[in-house]
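In this supplementary section we document a worked example of the pipeline. Step one takes a protein sequence of length 349 as its only input; no multiple sequence alignment statistics are reported here. Step two produces a three-dimensional model, which step three serialises into structure tokens for compact storage. The input and output of this example are shown verbatim.
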Amino acid sequence: MSNETPSALGLPQARIAELIIDHARDYAIFTMELGGRITSWSTGAERITGYTPDEAVGMDFQAFFTASDQSTGQAQLELDKAWRDGRAEDTRWHVRKNGERFWANGVTSSFIEGELKGLVKVMRDETRNRLADEQRILLLNELNHRINNTLVTVQSLVEQTLRATDTDRSIRENLTARLLALSDAHRLLVDQNWAGADLEAIVEKALAPYQDGDRSRLRMDGPNVRLSPQQAVSMALVLHELTTNAVKYGALSVPDGFVETAWNLHYDELGARHMTFLWQEHGGPAVTEPMRRGFGSRLISRSFGEDGGGEARIEFHADGVRCGVHLPLITPAEMEMMDPTAIHQEAGD
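The serialised model returned by step three reads:
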């Protein structure tokens, strides 16, 4: 189609392209020869880089690259890839005329128009978003540091307070171990910037101190399941209680005992995700139902009750302790949004 062919708007295609380029002020758009010499320059390119058309046309493309990128030939690699593959995309720091760095995402594409061969670059300045992300990460790291220090302080205060009151040593050790389990869960969340944690990583962290070389005493099986920060902490505490009990009284207290952990993921009729989890001990001493439930059993039973309607049930079978967990992986508010009957009720109101 000729560039002079009228479009549906009644304007020549070339004129429409010119208007788009002139008004795309958030984008740097320019053309180059195959070697990287700039041949045209948009208003957006001037605004983003600081170079006027008179200054930019004739310049080498690599002038906008940092010194380290220039030293490794990154500009030429981009040009070569664009001509070879028809397209090359990158996201990196570039340099404005005044020496200031800017973060940009760009695409370089090849074109052939008759005997004319060249490249066109479209680049967007994303510096503001990049700096906002860096600031968010900085603040998050500071928060993580403060929380970690708080946990260490709480652990020290608890230990010193209980020791000063001549509290039984086993009670002090149990409480300290629970605080350490909480701290371990926090570290997993820190590694993921508090976006949640992988269930398998939580299980491995809880069981690692008791795993043997061939991994025969602690067996895991299940798909990838992502837990929210609150769910991850609850699961870490539950696994700590189960593991501690198994080491003291259950399957891990004897040489031939082992623990099986398994989990699965499913969707209900509304598309909401749910997780089921099993802890099963084998080969340990005979188990009897305790006369009363201790703190650990109560913690397990209550861990998920207020976290999205989950449930954890511990059973004392003769052949080994068994714990089953069912946990919705969305919040009650999200479940209500997915419930069509709730929507109809609101509409009726």
